[in-house]
Amino acid sequence: MNDLSNYRKSYDKSELLESTIPEDPINLFNRWFHEVEDFGGDSEVNAMTVATIGLDGFPKSRVVLLKKFTEEGFIFYTNYNSEKGKAITANPNVCLSFFWHTMERQVIIKGIAKRTSEITSDSYFESRPDGSKLGAIVSNQSEVVPSREFLEENLKQLEKDFESMVIPRPKHWGGFLVTPLEVEFWQGRPNRLHDRIRYTSQEDYSWKIERLSP
């Protein structure tokens, strides 16, 4: 048995106050993202957890990379035929979360996911290195494969097939845009009295701002 009850840490690097936050969560997310990028030292600031409700009825979380965020929401890319892609297609209610431990910050986003336009998916796919493009084609993501060698041999064949050729985006691969309905910002504070500020989308496109008890 591993007793972790003595694992404790004091949080004292920053604060989150209503008097210093913007009226919408995207602006605050942008501020936090670049503060972590510039000062936090996290190697992959855009790493986020995506939680979905699977076809088996169980929630499942996995880490993916955020590739763009705008006033519309948050975009990541995946295989639409993957377990994740099928889950989102069946139930677009998802949760994204970021944990930036160096700045003692967490962001939790509840929203609705929908596929990005083909133009958006094509544009991002074209920006990827050829190896990543071929990897998207060769991998039937989430499907059982006989071995690592099976994947590597298929990749070698694709490298020959597409040598000196433009690699097209497979139709089963593309982006999801998550439109936020609720965004919670968590800032670690001393004595476990953490700051929690929640933004909730309103019908008039404004945001309701509330402080939550830690």
From TrEMBL:
Keyword Transcription: no
Superkingdom in the source lineage: Bacteria
GO biological process, any: pyridoxine biosynthetic process
Domain Pyridoxine 5'-phosphate oxidase dimerisation C-terminal: residue ranges: 173-214
Keywords noted in UniProt: Flavoprotein, FMN, Oxidoreductase, Pyridoxine biosynthesis
Catalysed conversion reaction: pyridoxine 5'-phosphate + O2 = pyridoxal 5'-phosphate + H2O2; pyridoxamine 5'-phosphate + O2 + H2O = pyridoxal 5'-phosphate + H2O2 + NH4(+)
Entry function: Catalyzes the oxidation of either pyridoxine 5'-phosphate (PNP) or pyridoxamine 5'-phosphate (PMP) into pyridoxal 5'-phosphate (PLP).
PANTHER family: PYRIDOXINE-5'-PHOSPHATE OXIDASE (PTHR10851:SF0), PYRIDOXINE-5-PHOSPHATE OXIDASE (PTHR10851)
Designated name of the protein: Pyridoxine/pyridoxamine 5'-phosphate oxidase
Naturally occurring in which organism (per UniProt): Flavobacterium limicola
Chain's gene name: pdxH
